[in-house]
């Protein structure tokens, strides 16, 4: 299950970029709660903002394993950047898979270049784990869809230039959820509250408010009522991306813990020589590698066709591993780990979100167990 030579080269290129352009600035952006746009432009120069875009539109057209590797490496440096990239790629994937030739020609080449940034608007204040309960409505009127409602937890909400929106064509019909393409400058679309979060603080997470926002009928991406099916198919790949990011955070926390344990001395020797610490690190190493292998297996299966159970197992295990490993990394650092002077404090805060977004751990277990009864 080793990466191919080409995948290893991509991995080395992304890792070098992250180490040279990302790592040193992470704390600054985390503290200021601002997104590193210069890093985004660097990702675009590497064609990584076109990961899921066909070559015919200037994209990278990466296979699932390569996509997983890139997500892991970027998250190893900065989870906020990896999250922004994966959501942008959700948007390009939707346009690629469900859009018309005109949609693809209009949006994808520019999105490959990093602008406009894409957003994915599915969740609502009262519709998270069960999106069928959404209340946002897109009513067809004189050749235009008139959109009203509120979306929440939108990554790239302020930065985005285009939004992939899920709304009901009939607010009272749960089977009418449909997917739309909404330019950010559409009158009636406003950016609402920016969330003040525990972790992932450099990530742009907002609400989006739609008040009689009008888009042409041609901006509908799926057939009426096919929106949830489209969302779930796209999110299967998205969950593998989150699993990959969780592995990246876990690996970063493990690396920090090993480095500190080799340097920190107590009782006359490095603490890594004490069995309690050495065995803790052994458990962390084993869990990180297990999460990586499970994630790569899911990616390979997804290349051959959607495998929702494999994606959910990877996302569930890797995200829980990220939380556990980050927690143990703080413990290895002792009191220092609880301060902002050491990166493990941020890993600890960031890791938790991987168990929540794009389907909580509880939802992943529902998906996994449902496949056992089929």
Share of residues in strands: 15-25%
Q: H/E element string? A: HHHHHHEEEEEEEHEEHHHH
Distance N to C terminus:
28 Å
Radius of gyration: 21 Å
Major sheet: order of its strands? Answer: 2-3-7-6
Can you tell me the residue ranges where pLDDT is under 50 for at least 5 consecutive residues? none
User: What is the number of E strands?
Assistant: 9
Query: How much helix, percentage-wise, in residues?
Result: 40-55%
Give the integer mean of the pLDDT values. Answer: 96
Biggest pleated sheet:
4 strands, antiparallel
Structural class: alpha+beta
Number of helices: 11
Shape: globular
Can you offer a commentary on this structure?
The protein is α+β, with helices and mostly antiparallel strands and 374 residues long. 51% of the residues lie in helices and 16% in strands. The chain has eleven helices and nine strands. The chain has helices spanning 5-21, 26-32, 37-45, 64-77, 79-98, 101-112, 227-263, 275-303, 308-333, 344-351, 361-372; strands at residues 117-121, 137-141, 144-155, 160-168, 177-183, 189-194, 205-216, 265-266, 269-270. The strands form three sheets. It has a four-stranded antiparallel β-sheet, covered by helices on one side. Strands 1-4-5 form a three-stranded mixed β-sheet. A hairpin with a 2-residue loop joins strand 2 (137-141) and strand 3 (144-155). Helix 5 packs antiparallel against helix 7 (227-263). The radius of gyration is 21 Å and the shape is globular. The two termini are 28 Å apart.
What is this structure's SSE topology?
Blueprint: H1 5-21, H2 26-32, H3 37-45, H4 64-77, H5 79-98, H6 101-112, E1 117-121, E2 137-141, E3 144-155, E4 160-168, E5 177-183, E6 189-194, E7 205-216, H7 227-263, E8 265-266, E9 269-270, H8 275-303, H9 308-333, H10 344-351, H11 361-372
Parallel strand pairs: 1-4
Antiparallel strand pairs: 2-3, 3-7, 4-5, 6-7, 8-9
